[in-house]
Automatic annotation (TrEMBL):
It holds the Pfam family DHquinase_II. Pathway: Metabolic intermediate biosynthesis; chorismate biosynthesis; chorismate from D-erythrose 4-phosphate and phosphoenolpyruvate: step 3/7. It catalyses: 3-dehydroquinate = 3-dehydroshikimate + H2O. It comes from Aquibacillus rhizosphaerae. This is 3-dehydroquinate dehydratase. The keyword Cell wall biogenesis/degradation does not apply.
Amino acid sequence: MKKILLLNGPNLNRLGKREPDIYGIKTLEDIEQELSQVVKTHHGTLQAYQSNHEGELIDFIHQSDGEYDGIIFNPGAYTHTSIALRDAISSIAVPVIEVHISNVHQRESFRHTSLLAPVCQGQIVGLGIKGYELAALAFLQED
Ligand code: DQA
């Protein structure tokens, strides 16, 4: 049975209210529940956390080492700024898939760079909340 961690970074607790034209109308709770069902269907387990604090996200990443088979991570704006999160990902053996709901490449130039992508297994952008599910399937179906 695969254990998956879903980690969402800053402002993603505002999903459903936040810029719905870009991020849609579903709440983070909706997304977590739906993803949990998908993972269950594939005989896995899902644990979900959200934090607006860089240090707390780093702690979650450290604590995940040896505990999970894969991490689905939407780091929000820290994607574009955080060397500390990159170093945290590099410090663990668990593979990470970076997910962005919006197509960051169609948006402001400061969103075009990910400091984290080079240390992630893969990256899914611009497919809406479906990206979370696709990341989960990638972990659940590999072998
Ligand atoms: C985001 C894209 C980031 O640039 C932004 O700061 C977010 C959300 C996305 O899911 O599209 O907070 O990660």
